[in-house]
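Hi R.,

Here's the chain you asked about this morning:
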Amino acid sequence: MQLRYGLNPQQTTAYAVPVAPERAPVRVLQGQPSYINLLDALNAWQLVREADRTLGLPAAASFKHVSPAGAAVAGPVDAAAALPYGVDPAGVGPLTSAYLRARDADPKSSYGDFVAVSREVDPELAELLARVVSDGIVAPGYAPGVLEVLAKKKNGRFLVMEADPDFEPPRSEAREVFGLRLVQERDRIPLGPDVLADVPVGTLTDGVRADVLLGLAVLRFTQSNSVCYVRDGQTLGIGAGQQSRVDCTRLAGAKTDTWWLRRHPLVRDLAFRPGVRRQDRVNWRIRLVEGDLTEDERDRLRAAVTGEHREPGPGERAEWLARLTGVSFVSDGSLPFRDNVDHAHRHGVTTIAEPGGSIRSGDVEDACRELGLTLVRTGLRLFHH
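And the predicted structure, written out as tokens:
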């Protein structure tokens, strides 16, 4: 597979070769991928395939720079998630709902994303993709007429890839870095019920159990260190690739707060003038939530909206954030200190899932007990680089 270029345009020679020449995991139906496009496609496809196999629901992921901005399985779409895309939340099909929920986790970061879905792309999802800024999609198939819709996107440069749903990779995987070939056994432990077999019956509701399993599937294909906040089958905030785990926790927690505050009536019901672009409307709602608008931004926001507007005050923010609950916090590695628990607790978390086994695991357990949080020890580290 000839690639447009490597990680950067100056790396002009780039291609991909199947390990088993007779069978490749993906094939290109339209466009020409770059090196990063292919990394996004392969990681994103593995994530949604694993989530679907584990939970039995259509799954979607919105990838940027080899980590998910958001991921979700099919489920209810609320007004805040549907509003930017002009869809009726009550009439959204399962696959489209999964993608809307995935993109809704961090719609600012999802601008220009690479999409992955676990089921055949239907006309409804294709019509949505035709209206959003996105670079490509990978899926196990495409319904009749869908490719014609996607062919019009980006003047035919929108990347469309088809994944082989039955492809299973070799038991070992390798990469070359600076002249050294690194080989390891592939992580093949399935994320099924056995992962939570040691959790006492009745400790977790079925919904929380599913959220934890979705979180584990997400983190398996997210650059480490990584954590995610999950509720009702969708990620609310993902922290990826930070050197400090508590920085991941705080970053993803801030995204979770932003997700929830975007549902505040003062933010959700902002009335924009005709002609304001969809992504600008998304970004203005986020900036209003973040609460640190510059003077220039304040002037431009006034010009973009009709009527009076204001951001929620400190008391209104605190009261609204206090309503968020039932969130599961999942970590790809052991929590080294209780500070992760203290910070996670600020963002509606009621369940924490982590491998355990750190020298201060007792402190983590004490913190969960003190704050009334359910602690799940998976015994499974999911580092990904």
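The first strand starts at residue 26 and ends at 30.

Let me know if you need anything else.
M.
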